[in-house]
Structure formats: C-alpha cells, structure tokens
Amino acid sequence: MKTIKRRSFLTNVAITSALGVAATLPTEANTKKKTFIHHVYFWLKNPSSEADRNKLIEGLTALSKVPTIRFHHIGLPASTNRSVIERSYSVSWMLFFDNLEEEEVYQKHPIHLKFVEDYSHLWEKVIVYDSEQV
C-alpha cells in the first residue's frame, strides 16, 4: 500500500476543492440569463369605479397563469406622497421573467391575448416600463 505524505494529501485536497468551486462559478453561458421585469401601469376610464378596478384585478389574476411568469404583483397606488412619486394610475401589474425571451412568449400567449381582448375596454391609458437585470 502506497503511503501518502501529509503535504501531498493537503495539496490534492486543495486542488480538488478549487476545481469544485470553479465548476460553480458563473460562466459566459449562464450569465446571459438576465431577469426581465415588465411593469405595466393602467389608468382606468372610470377611475372612481371600484367595480371597474376589481374587474381589471380579476383579469390580471387570470393573466398570472401564463407559465413563463416567475413572479407577479398586482398593486394599487401607495399612500406615500412625495414630489417624485406618481400616484395617478389605477392599478399596477409587475411581472418577473427569467429573460426577455420568456417575456416575449408571454406577449403572444393566448391568455395574454384574451386578457387584452376582454379587459382593454376598462382602461384609457397604459404605460409599460421594461427592464433587464444589469
């Protein structure tokens, strides 16, 4: 049986550990996956109508079933009040996707197309802010 000296053993352990860590470090291939955020603000035609707001929220809840959506948030204007805060919208809709391609699938998905068809009569204005992770 071959005897391994302590120094050789420790060197081999260090090299093996370093290789294991290196295998988990980001590579060019896996760093191209950048989270994509799609944030939509809706201004209702009848902003004082609770029924219209609830109907839009109902539609957004159904829309959240598109399988490429990783996380969704339906929101109403917060009570914060500073000069830089926009509070004139009725409902916000924020979505997280794994990447731009997944968001593009969402845009063409039958659930999304049906949402636009069934609920677009409720809003007078929509603004979208899309962003990709740095």
Automatic annotation (TrEMBL):
Renumbered to this chain, the signal peptide range is 1-22
| Gene3D superfamilies, per database record | 3.30.70.100
Q: In this record, what's one Pfam family? A: Dabb
Task: Enumerate the PROSITE patterns for this protein.
Answer: S_R_A_B_BARREL, TAT
Stress-response A/B barrel domain residues: 36-131
Superkingdom as given in the UniProt entry: Bacteria
Listed A to Z, the keywords are:
Signal
**In its keyword annotation, does this UniProt entry include Signal?**
yes
Q: What is this protein called?
A: Dabb family protein
